[in-house]
Design a protein that fits this description.
The chain is of the alpha/beta class and about 190 residues long. About 45% of the residues lie in helices and about 25% in strands. It has a five-stranded mixed sheet with strand order 2-1-3-4-7, with helices on both faces. The N and C termini lie far apart (about 50 Å).
Length: about 190
């Protein structure tokens, strides 16, 4: 009986310590991911590019700029949607070549009732990445480039007159990103 009681006590202790350890490990991982960025640069990825998606993009830029300025984080927004080169040109022009890219992706149907997918993600662009253990004579051994997503969330909506609800969802997602970004940098 004592052995069973000791085993149950150990199991309960392990069950309460493990989540705390996992949470702390996750927090430390995120602290490392968000350390060292010069600022945040926002880019919109829109499909299609129309008045509806462009309006949500511009609203998001203004909201993100306000949040960044309030928190004292250097911020810029690319002028052209769907254009990585514009983002990089703007980053260098602003002296923020080491900024973290905050991308807002909006995919929408073209007419009412609308179906809309919105993703907010933070990702640095990396180049010349090579898979571990890759041989230079096969395709996995060739340098690649892409986005390394550090943080993301998304929302989906459908119906008519969604602009207010979508702005609320975007504001919530941006607020969560900036809260995480700020807390992990401290």
């Amino acid at each position: 009986m004592r052995t069973l009681l000791a085993a149950l006590t150990a199991l309960m202790l392990f069950a309460t310590v493990l989540p705390a350890h996992t949470e702390e490990y996750g927090r430390q991982f995120n602290v490392k991911q968000f350390a060292g960025w010069e600022g945040i640069g926002l880019q919109c990825a829109l499909s299609p590019i129309n008045d509806f998606t462009n309006d949500l993009c511009e609203w998001s830029k203004a909201k993100a700029r306000l949040m960044a300025v309030t928190a004292g984080i250097p911020f810029f927004a690319a002028k052209k949607p769907n254009n990585h080169e514009d983002w990089y040109f703007t980053a260098y022009k602003k002296g923020q070549s080491q900024a973290l890219m905050l991308q807002i992706r909006i995919i929408s149907t073209t007419s009412e009732p609308r179906g809309v997918f919105i993703e907010v993600r933070a990702a640095p662009f990396y180049t010349d990445a090579i898979e571990h253990n890759a041989s230079p004579d096969i395709s996995t051994g060739q340098p690649k480039s892409g986005d390394l997503v550090l943080w993301n969330t998304h929302a989906v909506g459908s119906g008519t007159g969604l602009k207010g609800e979508l702005r609320s969802a975007l504001e919530l997602m941006l607020t969560q990103f900036f809260a995480d970004f700020i807390s992990y940098r401290q």
